[in-house]
Amino acid sequence: MNIFRFAGDLSHVFAIIILLLKIWKTRSCAGISGKSQILFAIVYLTRYLDLFTTYVSLYNSVMKVLFLATSGATVYLMYVKFKATYDHNHDSLRIEFLLIPCALLSLVINHEFTVMEVLWTFSIYLESVAILPQLFLVSKTGEAESITSHYLFALGSYRALYLLNWVYRYMVESHYDLIAIFAGVVQTILYCDFFYLYITKVLKGKKLQLPA
Known about the structure:
Layout: H1 3-26, H2 34-47, H3 58-81, H4 96-108, H5 115-129, H6 132-141, E1 143-144, H7 146-173, H8 178-200, E2 208-209
Antiparallel strand pairs: 1-2
Helix pairs in contact: 1-3, 1-7, 2-3, 2-5, 4-5, 5-8, 7-8
């Protein structure tokens, strides 16, 4: 554990809190990609299966349970409780084009060809592109509510901080994981355009708009 990983985890939790509060308070999931939330749920399910077999620390276990529970709750709110407010028309990116390549890549490039390791690797690859349906939805609608923008910024910050975590671990512990680093770089790059618009528009009180 180091300050960058801890800050990344806090940013991740903050993003989830923002999302759930947005949905619950407005009683609507308008502007939120249900497909991205399904992908994130799959990420946590495949990554945290070791919750039942491996104990690392109380902190680690609590975070795993938190991510599993909140991802399930988000999918429930979007597809069951507030289903009528979900924008199916704009949330149209075909997620099989993300799932299948990630699954195939995890079978080919992994640290060890075991079930748990392949599933972990799959979750790392999938997380790097899981935000694409959300960004695609925002680009199709042309804009995003401020609260949705805050959610995306917190989520992107989590991944950027984790990259700093890997730099720190390499410098201090001489430890690195090329799969996690590569996926983290890809995910951060996907957020770059959004980060720029967030800083230049949202933080100045303007509505975030993306080219359709």
